[in-house]
Structure formats: structure tokens, C-alpha cells
Amino acid sequence: MTAYLITGAKIVVGGPESERVADLLIDNGEIVAVGTNLDTPTDVETIDAKGLIALPGLVDLHTHLREPGREDAETVLTGTKAAALGGFTAVHAMANTDPVADTAGVVEQVWRLGREAGYADVYPIGAVTVGLKGTQLAELGAMADSAARVRVFSDDGMCVWDAALMRRALEYVKAFGGVIAQHAQEPRLTQGAQMNEGELSGVLGLTGWPSVAEESIIARDILLNGHVGSKLHICHLSTKGSVEIVRAAKKRGFEVTAEVTPHHLLLTEDLATSYNPVFKVNPPLRTKADVEAVREGLADGTIDIVATDHAPHPVEDKDCEWSAAAFGMLGLETALSVVQHAMIDTGLMTWAELADRMSYRPAAIGQVSEHGRPLEAGAPANLTLIDPAARRTVVPGESASLSRNTPFDGMELPGRVVATFLRGEPTVLDGKPAR
Amino acid sequence: MRHLLSAGDLTRDDATLILDTAEEMRSLADRPIKKLPALRGRTVVNLFFEDSTRTRISFEAAAKRLSADVINFSAKGSSVSKGESLKDTALTLQAMGADGVVCRHGSSGAPHLLATSGWMTGSVVNAGDGTHEHPTQALLDAFTMRRHLGSLEGRRITIVGDVLHSRVARSNVLLLSTLGADVTVVAPPTLLPVGMSSWPCTTSYDLDSVLPKSDAVMMLRVQRERMNDAFFPSAREYSRRYGLDVHRMAQLPDEAIVLHPGPMNRGMEISAQVADSTRSVIVEQVTNGVAIRMAVLYLLLSGSPETSTTSTEEQTA
């Protein structure tokens, strides 16, 4: 295994004050030393990282890798390659594959494919209910005990809308410390919904997806979880009201964690005016006021993490009329740039806080001990080097994903991932896949 | 003007030009030969993804009276349900050299997509898309009102019914306000979109209070099935509160007219006596529909750059 000496990077270690310029020596999959004038092995490979920032490898709690079942949209290999290019060293693969990841067999298959791909560690998320149908609990214990060691369970794409079933799921996973990640969407309030409900949906004649459909489920589940004392995580929170509910709940001592996607930190509903389905996503893009609220929530810690909800779709599922199109957007390769643009360059967050929201905390929620560790001697060498001064224009055709449905097409964004290391091995060097 | 996608895209001058052109087209109906050579050699495709016999034959008659070649493409019932087919259909029409495509589609924005996707180069006329818009219906309604009321400036026009799901209502509110009318929409609160403050109209839940101040009343079709989704309790209750019967009609000023885009639910939103009364201009709307669609097709297709000199000479209607 090659040893690497990364010189002159600004290293983000821990709290907001702990950014410092130093060298970083990686060997045998670990960070051996951090400091200056380090003792290095003779055959070390040096990477000049002057002007770059070294971040702990990013961890995504919400990725759709589409395999098994929709290998035309993405595979574990292409999805994790995109992840590495985006600075991620670990991704959590959502359960809505075909077949659904609702048995130990499927989660072990996905876990094994991740190991083989080698670009990022893949942690499968198990379905809460059989076939995501919301009627019967899946074998959560079997998935937890499997080689994939599942700890996060979600019916993402579908809401566990039945309050009794949600209660039981929250209770049941206490036996092995699991967390239920809820896709908060009241189904009756969102039948046929196409975009955020408001003035614009009325004008465009697209069926509305009202904020209250998200907020009512979040409020219900926080109270349910308060009753049973388990672990609740809210997927892709998107409205101002949701931020207020979570903030108030945390203040009153309720246990809950929440995520926001990069696209909800930047894009607004008016993009639907083009009727271009690349902007169709669930939950939908909201208003400017919502974007401001989720940014504020992420900055003050109300929202714990950024998760991409990377949702690849083949061209034909987006190259069509709005109502026929699939929901979802690519996210892995643009997440860091979007968060830098929305949170860092606006002064709302520091790089250390970004490391917290995109690495430490998602790893903690996903209970992944190998990832999300501060860049210190003895930690696994999972890290990414980024050039914050670079600017780039997003070109869908350049994506490592099999799909092209990025809503950031043509947008100029700051920041570029220069290198990513997974357990000491480069997955990305010079901004290109290194395997 | 290259496409007609939304009534909101029309300036007052655009709209007036269409209405004035339609007047000339309508006078043609009184001549022994009801045909003009204006679009000879041009191909108009009626691309209907939803059933709508009335709108389709209206466009067909309009195109034929302008001597265009007309192809009717009914996608309803075929395997067309996914978007890929919209794209393939558009590519097919492009390959066949369609100069104009009249599109009716169940998905809001589908004509917009045809016009902007680059799949085809012809002009697109929105003949009704989902719950979005139906601009030629609004034009023919305005045309009909103008013939009865004169200028629409300051005229009080009331639109009653399922505004939430109505493409007719959206296009009419936009067009009539552009033409200077004072538009009021009346519906139960469940059938109004949330956040209508940006719409250029006022809203009311009370039909009886609005009728005495209306120069024209447009009744929208209300599907009985909406009551299954709890938009209103029953057809009878809807009819009692928002239907136009002779007693309600009596509250209208003397010269006021009654419109309906059709097809009507007699006894639901409009009583048979009202529909057949002298105030009703519903049949006239159908006649005017052909004239309006002739005007739209003429203005979109006869002057485009690739038109040969012979067709420019024919612009003498």
C-alpha cells in the first residue's frame, strides 16, 4: 500500500476554531500523523495540497443506487464512483430497489456490491415495511443481524403513514438501536401532487403538494417517538414550518434528527415554470422563504445533516411531460459545491460546521464508526481534498452517474473535489476516478 | 407570435388583432364559398391525447376553411401514456413536416414542452393542457362577449364553477383582464386554488351577491365525480348554491349574457331553461370558435419566414 504525504492543506479537525494548515501522512489505511516536518517513509507519494481544504470523507445518509432492479439508471459501481468524485467515502443506499431491500438477502447483496466496487463504503438501508407497502413490518431484526448490519430503516419514497405501524416500527428497532428515517408525506393530502402548493401551482395547473402534508407527519412522528423513546430521523425536510416544528421539538427535549438536501438549500419552485421535469422532485422545490428557513435551520443545528437524495433516472423518465416524469434529482457530485455556495460563501456556516453536517453527524446517525472521524492520527484515512477557490460549470454529460438528471445543468458553482481517499487508497486523484 | 401556449402571453394588441381577424373570418361564413386559400400547402396536425370531439372538429373546420392539409392524430386509446411517446410523436410529426400542431393533452405544460424541447419546429397551439390553459377557448369567449357587449373595457365578467381544475377559467381570467374587463370568479372555497392573490381577478363564494353586477356570466362544467373527493357534498347542494337557474338569472342586468364552454351538465351548473334562453350565447360560442381558430392558425402559419412568396400574396383575407 502506497503511503501519501499531503502537504500544506488547511485541515478541518473539529470545532469551529480548529482549522489549521499542516501536513497529513497516510499509511496502511490510517492517518499516521498530522503536523509539520513529519517523519516520512522513503517511498512516500507527496501531494501538494497548498490552498486546498482537507475534510473528513463525506457520508451520505440518503442515496439511491438503484441496484438491484434499475441498473439502467445507476449501479452500485457508478453510484459510488459519483460519490467518490463528490468527496464521499460512505453512502447509505435507500431501500426502494427492485426487489425492495426488505430482507437480509437483498441488503447483503447491496452491501457486497459496495465492497466490490471499492469507491465508497455502502451501507444498505432496510425497508420498514414489506415491499414499502406500509402494511406489514419487514424483518428488521434479520437485516440488523445480517452481514450488512443495517441500522437505518426507511420506506423512502413512501411515507409510513399508518400511525400504529410507525409506532411499532419505532418501538421494535429499539432492540438493536435502529433508527427509522421517515419520508414525511401525508398521502391523502398529496394525491397526484406534482409541485409545491401555492400561488404558482394554481397558475401552472399542476396539482399542489402542500407544506402541511410534510409538517403534519413530522409533528405526529416526533410526538410518537417521544412516547416510545426510540430514534427518529426526518428525511429531506423542505419547509419553513418543518424547521420550526423540529426546532421547537428539540428545544423541548424531543429526540429527533433531520436532513436537508442540497437542492432544497438552493433551488425554488419557480423553476417549474419551464415545465422541465428535471426540476420535479419529492418533496418538491419550495419557496424562497422555505430555502431561507432550511439554510438557517442547517446553520443553527436544527437540521442535523445534509443528505443528497441522489435519485438517478434514465433519460426517458425525464424527457417527457411533467406529470409523466419521475421524481428525483442527481446530487452526489454537486452536493459539496452547492453547500459551499449556499452555506459557506454566504457566511452562514464554517468549513468545520460543514464537516459536522456532512460527515460526523451523518456517520453518527447511521452508526458508522469507520467514517465521520476527525482527521487525527489513528483515524481511518477517509478524507477528501477540495479546492474551494475553483469554479466550475455543471455539465450533465460529465457525470460519473449513469443518469443525467441534474437540476444544476449549466450552473456555475464554487469548489472542486481534487482527491478522495478511502481507507488510505485514493478513489479520486486530480479530480478524476483513481481506480 | 410563434406559438399560442398561454392566454397570458398575449398583449392587448395581440389579442385585439386575433379578435379583429376573427371578425373577418366570421364574415366568411355568410359567403357562398366558405374557403380561403391562405394556408394552401401547409400541414396542420390535430394532436389529441384526450378525447375532445368539439375542439378537434372546430380546429379541423378552421384549418380546412383556410385550405390547409389537416391530419388528425388521436393518441387516446393507443399505448401513449408515458412521455417518451410524446417525444416520439413530436419527432414523427417533425419528420412529416407539420407546420402547425394543435395539441390537446392531459398533462399541464405538454404543449409548452412541444414548443420548447427542440423536438419539432412547427408552431404549437395549445388546445387545452391538463388543468392549465385553453387559450383559444378564452379567445372565442372574449370574441362572443365583444360581439354582444362591445369593448370589454370595464365590463364585469363573472366566471362560476370548478376554477381549481379548469383550464378555461385560467385562460379567461388572463385574457379578459388583459382586455380590460373586471373579472370575478365564484366557486366554493374547495374549488378555488390556494393563493390566488396574484390572479388578476377578484374571488367570491357567493353567486347571488355577484350576479346583479355582472355583464356576462360564464358557467364552467363541474364534474359530478368531484363530490367523491369531498370538493362538495352532493350535486344537488352544488346546484343549489352555485347553479344558474331562471330565478338566479333574473338577478342579472337586462343586457347580460350567459356563456358555457360546453359540454354542459344540464340541471347541474346550468338549468335547461337558462341554457336555452335568449340570454344564452352558448351555440354562438361554437360558431365563433371556428372563426377564432381560423384567425389563430392564419396569424401563426401564414406569415412565418419559410413561407413562399405565393402564400404571402394570398394574405388578402
TrEMBL record, chain A:
<keyword id="KW-0862">Zinc</keyword>
<dbReference type="InterPro" id="IPR011059">
    <property type="entry name" value="Metal-dep_hydrolase_composite"/>
</dbReference>
<dbReference type="InterPro" id="IPR024403">
    <property type="entry name" value="DHOase_cat"/>
</dbReference>
<keyword id="KW-0665">Pyrimidine biosynthesis</keyword>
<feature type="binding site">
    <location>
        <position position="156"/>
    </location>
    <ligand>
        <name>Zn(2+) 1</name>
    </ligand>
</feature>
<feature type="binding site">
    <location>
        <position position="236"/>
    </location>
    <ligand>
        <name>Zn(2+) 2</name>
    </ligand>
</feature>
<keyword id="KW-0378">Hydrolase</keyword>
<feature type="binding site">
    <location>
        <position position="313"/>
    </location>
    <ligand>
        <name>substrate</name>
    </ligand>
</feature>
<protein>
    <recommendedName>
        <fullName>Dihydroorotase</fullName>
        <ecNumber>3.5.2.3</ecNumber>
    </recommendedName>
</protein>
<feature type="binding site">
    <location>
        <position position="183"/>
    </location>
    <ligand>
        <name>Zn(2+) 2</name>
    </ligand>
</feature>
<feature type="binding site">
    <location>
        <position position="96"/>
    </location>
    <ligand>
        <name>substrate</name>
    </ligand>
</feature>
<feature type="binding site">
    <location>
        <position position="156"/>
    </location>
    <ligand>
        <name>Zn(2+) 2</name>
    </ligand>
</feature>
<dbReference type="InterPro" id="IPR004722">
    <property type="entry name" value="DHOase"/>
</dbReference>
<dbReference type="GO" id="GO:0004038">
    <property type="term" value="F:allantoinase activity"/>
</dbReference>
<feature type="binding site">
    <location>
        <begin position="64"/>
        <end position="66"/>
    </location>
    <ligand>
        <name>substrate</name>
    </ligand>
</feature>
<dbReference type="GO" id="GO:0008270">
    <property type="term" value="F:zinc ion binding"/>
</dbReference>
<dbReference type="InterPro" id="IPR032466">
    <property type="entry name" value="Metal_Hydrolase"/>
</dbReference>
<comment type="function">
    <text>Catalyzes the reversible cyclization of carbamoyl aspartate to dihydroorotate.</text>
</comment>
<dbReference type="GO" id="GO:0005737">
    <property type="term" value="C:cytoplasm"/>
</dbReference>
<dbReference type="GO" id="GO:0044205">
    <property type="term" value="P:'de novo' UMP biosynthetic process"/>
</dbReference>
<comment type="similarity">
    <text>Belongs to the metallo-dependent hydrolases superfamily. DHOase family. Class I DHOase subfamily.</text>
</comment>
<feature type="binding site">
    <location>
        <begin position="327"/>
        <end position="328"/>
    </location>
    <ligand>
        <name>substrate</name>
    </ligand>
</feature>
From TrEMBL, chain B:
<dbReference type="GO" id="GO:0005829">
    <property type="term" value="C:cytosol"/>
</dbReference>
<protein>
    <recommendedName>
        <fullName>Aspartate carbamoyltransferase</fullName>
        <ecNumber>2.1.3.2</ecNumber>
    </recommendedName>
</protein>
<comment type="subunit">
    <text>Heterododecamer (2C3:3R2) of six catalytic PyrB chains organized as two trimers (C3), and six regulatory PyrI chains organized as three dimers (R2).</text>
</comment>
<feature type="binding site">
    <location>
        <position position="262"/>
    </location>
    <ligand>
        <name>carbamoyl phosphate</name>
    </ligand>
</feature>
<dbReference type="GO" id="GO:0006520">
    <property type="term" value="P:amino acid metabolic process"/>
</dbReference>
<feature type="binding site">
    <location>
        <position position="137"/>
    </location>
    <ligand>
        <name>carbamoyl phosphate</name>
    </ligand>
</feature>
<feature type="binding site">
    <location>
        <position position="82"/>
    </location>
    <ligand>
        <name>L-aspartate</name>
    </ligand>
</feature>
<comment type="similarity">
    <text>Belongs to the aspartate/ornithine carbamoyltransferase superfamily. ATCase family.</text>
</comment>
<keyword id="KW-0665">Pyrimidine biosynthesis</keyword>
<keyword id="KW-0808">Transferase</keyword>
<comment type="pathway">
    <text>Pyrimidine metabolism; UMP biosynthesis via de novo pathway; (S)-dihydroorotate from bicarbonate: step 2/3.</text>
</comment>
<dbReference type="InterPro" id="IPR006130">
    <property type="entry name" value="Asp/Orn_carbamoylTrfase"/>
</dbReference>
<feature type="binding site">
    <location>
        <position position="167"/>
    </location>
    <ligand>
        <name>L-aspartate</name>
    </ligand>
</feature>
<feature type="binding site">
    <location>
        <position position="221"/>
    </location>
    <ligand>
        <name>L-aspartate</name>
    </ligand>
</feature>
<feature type="domain" description="Aspartate/ornithine carbamoyltransferase carbamoyl-P binding">
    <location>
        <begin position="2"/>
        <end position="146"/>
    </location>
</feature>
<dbReference type="InterPro" id="IPR006131">
    <property type="entry name" value="Asp_carbamoyltransf_Asp/Orn-bd"/>
</dbReference>
<dbReference type="InterPro" id="IPR036901">
    <property type="entry name" value="Asp/Orn_carbamoylTrfase_sf"/>
</dbReference>
<dbReference type="GO" id="GO:0016597">
    <property type="term" value="F:amino acid binding"/>
</dbReference>
<dbReference type="GO" id="GO:0004070">
    <property type="term" value="F:aspartate carbamoyltransferase activity"/>
</dbReference>
<dbReference type="GO" id="GO:0006207">
    <property type="term" value="P:'de novo' pyrimidine nucleobase biosynthetic process"/>
</dbReference>
<feature type="binding site">
    <location>
        <position position="134"/>
    </location>
    <ligand>
        <name>carbamoyl phosphate</name>
    </ligand>
</feature>
<dbReference type="GO" id="GO:0044205">
    <property type="term" value="P:'de novo' UMP biosynthetic process"/>
</dbReference>
